[in-house]
Specification:
By secondary structure, the protein is of the alpha/beta class. It is 42% helix and 16% strand.
Length: 415
């Protein structure tokens, strides 16, 4: 009797037309090692796309490369109509209410991730590996004076790690943070920036880690100590979080149990952080593999195999970095009230008060330095999300309960 192949899905949530080049990088250039060539794996793609993000068309995401098509068992294109038709059945059959369907699968980045996770479960995949369309299977090693590049078997590393863990998460190098290489001056000093980071950060992302990136021009470089390792390090829980990132993320769908859905408050991000708060029962492993995060979209030529010998910092104003940073900064402010409410409700009022005081000081400085007067109202943004935190917590909780009910249904009907 022929051994059953391991069914593996690569999940993408994308809005960039460059997505197809990212797939090529993973499947044909650097990201696929011996684990696939052994013939023991059946590989498929789950592609959830957002046409509004960059004004793309559905055909921009359709893969026509014959070599790639010969390598994969199937490609599921998850546009709005396909998702709505499939999850609508859950409401029609009384498994979810219409409100729960909207909560889990409506518009937004986290909800598209849920769609990928839903289809992976429904279609009976054994493993799901989330890959972001701005992360490439490359490690940049070295420093600001010169780098060299190593291809990374991202998929193989996740599959190996998922043999012992329920959840795997790799490392990131490159332009990991949306913070540009700020040149401090009389308007914005290093103390001002530290005040902001400490106001919005958590115990995982700290001023110490951000300051280290400033010292390297905003860049993060890969370490041979990690690349050359064969260890899958257990991620311990810290203050209610087993911290993971949403990309370079692997899930063992057979062992991860009632994995919670992705979630964030309306208009916010942080979907990976909220998932981190609900996986305490999972065996989470850090695996020794990197992806290069092209956080500002400034290195698309890497996808064509053009690998520079040095990386330059992305300064304030370069590649739209100011808008990217300010958008991210507002996003951090938006999701932090709910995160604090979940992991440290006892000190919620005190920490929010401290955060508000810091933002009142830094908001006008940021608005002046980055030339964005809208940022001056960031305290109002904070207050809005504080005032709705109980509503968001109720949605977070009910979403998890609805997701668990849906998984039980899929298990009973055999997906």
């Amino acid at each position: 009797m022929e051994d059953k192949k391991l069914r593996v899905a690569l999940g993408f949530v994308t809005g960039r037309a460059s997505f197809k080049e990212v797939v090529t990088a993973y499947l044909l250039k650097w990201g696929l090692g011996e684990s696939f060539r052994s013939g023991d794996i059946e590989l498929s793609l789950l592609v959830a796309y957002d046409l509004d993000y960059m004004g793309t068309k559905a055909e921009d995401f359709v893969i026509k490369d014959e070599e790639i098509l010969s390598m994969v068992s199937s490609i599921e294109y998850l546009g709005k109509e396909r998702i709505s038709a499939e999850v609508g059945k859950l409401a029609n059959e009384g498994i979810l209410t219409a409100e729960e369907v909207e909560l889990l699968f409506g518009n937004g980045y986290a909800k598209l991730r849920n769609s990928v996770l839903f289809f992976a479960t429904k279609l009976g995949f054994d493993r799901l590996i989330f890959l972001d369309d701005d992360e490439y299977p490359l490690a940049c090693v070295g420093g600001v004076n010169g780098v060299y590049w190593l291809g990374q078997d991202v998929i193989g590393a996740h599959l190996a790690g998922l043999e012992v863990g329920d959840v795997t998460n790799g490392y990131h190098c490159g332009y990991v943070s949306p913070i540009p290489d700020v040149v401090f001056d009389d308007v914005l000093g290093v103390g001002d920036f530290r005040l902001f980071v400490e106001a919005v950060s958590n115990d995982i992302v700290t001023w110490k880690s951000i300051a280290g990136r400033f010292a390297a021009g905003g860049l993060t470089f890969a370490s041979h100590k990690i690349i050359d390792s064969d260890k899958f390090i257990v991620v311990e829980e810290i203050n209610g979080l087993k911290f993971i990132s949403g990309g370079n993320l692997g899930l063992n769908l057979a062992t991860s149990g009632n994995l919670s859905p992705f979630f964030n408050p309306p208009g916010a991000r942080g979907e990976d952080t909220f998932l981190s708060s609900s996986i305490s029962g999972c065996d989470v492993r850090k695996i020794p593999v990197y992806t290069f995060h092209d956080g500002f979209g400034s290195f698309p030529f890497l996808l064509k195999g053009v690998l520079p010998k040095r990386l330059d910092p992305v300064g304030a104003g370069d590649f739209g970095s100011d808008a990217r940073f300010l958008g991210a900064a507002k996003g951090w402010v938006k999701y932090r009230p709910l995160l604090l409410y979940i992991i440290d409700r006892k000190h919620f009022d005190v920490k929010i008060s401290q955060m508000r005081e810091a933002l009142m000081v830094i908001a006008p400085t940021f608005a002046e330095f980055f030339g964005d007067e809208d940022f001056a109202d960031v305290v109002g943004v904070l207050d809005y999300y504080v005032n709705r935190v109980e509503e968001d917590f109720a949605a977070f909780t009910s979403g998890g309960e609805a997701w668990s009910r849906m998984l039980d249904y899929l298990d009973k009907v055999g997906n």
